């Protein structure tokens, strides 16, 4: 039902232009990518050089991927630790990798539900969450790893129109110390959270969070 509802709405391109095979490539951060075992992921400059080296070699502006991906990159930060047997490594959103300062636009009408700087190595950094009325059903969208200046002047309940300039990709280290990218995630239920929402879950919680967090590609339009 949620996929049908999400597919029934016309969205503004979140990066200001359609993401397609001409300007975008898929990036693999799962355990099947052997490159990841050969680079120092804890070093953000090294990680950054790897990501943007791939984009440069392919002649692409954007890298994309990650929804429900079983990732191999979260060992770089204690943020994702639960226990050795139940480590959080299932990605619940889509990442769009691009240069710091790249603008991000609101895909549909909404209001500011919350905003916060989730500071700390490996965290979201500056984060904005919007609340939307989607044909009578409430949908939330999260934008993480932003620029600190994007949080200036915001107020709870502030109206946002489809196509408005919402934020920008932040540089490291202020973006949570990641190579610049947008973490874009959808939620049907905030589970009582404000300012933050889990962007990664453990294998044992996968079914629960997949029900709450629909596929953002239904809005982004890249397959």
From TrEMBL:
Q: Print the keywords alphabetically.
A: Signal
Q: Which domain of life is it from?
A: Bacteria
In what residue span(s) does the M23ase beta-sheet core domain sit? Answer: 90-188
Protein name according to UniProt: Peptidoglycan DD-metalloendopeptidase family protein
Q: Which organism is it from?
A: Belliella marina
